[in-house]
Amino acid sequence: MRMLLIHSDYLEYEVKDKALKNPEPISDEQKKGRLDEVLAVFISVEKVDETNPDEVVEKAVKEIEDVASQVKAERIFVYPFAHLSSELAKPDVALEVLRKIEEKLKERGFEVKRAPFGYYKAFKLSCKGHPLAELSRTIVPEEAVSK
Ligand SMILES: Nc1ncnc2c1ncn2[C@@H]1O[C@H](CO)[C@@H](NC(=O)[C@@H](N)CO)[C@H]1O
C-alpha cells in the first residue's frame, strides 16, 4: 500500500464520472464532500496487500494515527487514489481495505470521511505547508517482506 498524507486547511471533492464499470454505489449526498482542518490520506492499495489485507489495514491505521497525532489533526479524509502505484490490488480488495481503514479510524475517535471508490472526481486541496504537512508511507504485509 502507498499512502500520501497531506495536512490541509480543507479537502473537497465532487464526483464527475464512473472510472470503473461497477463503482461503489453512492447516495446523492456522497457526490460531493468537504472536510476542514483535515489530514487527507490518498491511498493506493497494492497487489502485495492481497496476501494479508487485515494486517495492512492495521499497519495503515497505526501510521495514520501516528501522523495525525504529530500534526494534531482530529479529522481524516480517506481518499482512494489509484495513481501512487503501478501494481494495484483488485478493486474489490481495495474497497474492502479502504472501508476497514475508515471504520477503524472512527473507532479510534477520529471524524472520518471516505471519498467514493471507482469514480473520477474533481478535488480541491489546501496544503498547510509546514514541515510535516506532506508525508508518504509504504506498507506491506509481513510475509511479503520475508519472501
Ligand atoms: N487499488 C486501488 N487503490 C485505490 N483506489 C482504487 C484501486 N483500484 C481502483 N480504485 C478506484 O477506482 C478508480 C479507478 O481506478 C480510482 N479513482 C481514482 O483514483 C480517482 N483519483 C480518479 O482517478 C479509485 O477510486
SSE series: EEHEHEEEH
Mean pLDDT: 97
Rounded Rg: 14 Å
Q: How large is the count of helical segments?
A: 3
Query: What bound compounds does this protein have?
Result: serine-3'-aminoadenosine
Strand residue content? 35-45%
Q: Rough shape?
A: globular
Distance between the termini: 17 Å
**Fraction of helical residues:** 25-40%
Give start-end ranges of low-pLDDT stretches.
Answer: none
What structural class do you assign from the helix and strand content? alpha/beta
Largest sheet: 6 strands, mixed
| Number of DSSP-assigned strands | 6
Structure description:
The chain is α/β, with parallel strands linked by helices. It has 3 helices and 6 strands. Strands 1, 2, 3, 4, 5 and 6 form a 6-stranded mixed beta sheet that branches. Helix 1 (53-71) crosses helix 2 (91-107). The model has no long low-confidence stretch (mean pLDDT 97).
Quick structural summary:
Helices cover 28% and strands 37% of the residues. The protein is of the alpha/beta class and 147 residues long.
Task: Set out the fold topology.
Elements: E1 2-18, E2 32-44, H1 53-71, E3 75-80, H2 91-107, E4 111-114, E5 119-127, E6 134-138, H3 142-146
Parallel strand pairs: 2-3, 3-4
Antiparallel strand pairs: 1-2, 1-5, 1-6
Helix pairs in contact: 1-2
Give the key terms:
single chain; 147 residues; alpha/beta; 6-stranded mixed sheet; 28% helix; binds serine-3'-aminoadenosine
